[in-house]
Amino acid sequence: GPDFNMKLRGMGCFPQKDGGLYWMGVQAPPELYALRENLYRLLRQEGFCLDPRPFRPHITLGRRIRMDQPTKTIRMVPIISHVNHIFLMQSQRIHDKLVYKEIWKTPLGLKDGPEQR
Description:
45% strand
């Protein structure tokens, strides 16, 4: 698919018992939703069971965070981010720490085939 820009803005929290998962919101362009729909369609064809919840794009800022003030009081400057690659990451909990490893990537906006690892 094509590469695109997206705007990161606002901050929120998914409450958890060991502290919150804080995130920055993504004002997603149609390209991101199309990319997600394509991915879900292909994964379903391969027999994967997928999360049925609505797609809520966000960037995780931190896990297990305890804040002294509500997120509404924190001013975040909007950020424009250019998206030109997709990365498939594997997450594993090692010694109670979440570790991410890149296992595949492909460029967006190029007519050549995907790079695979």
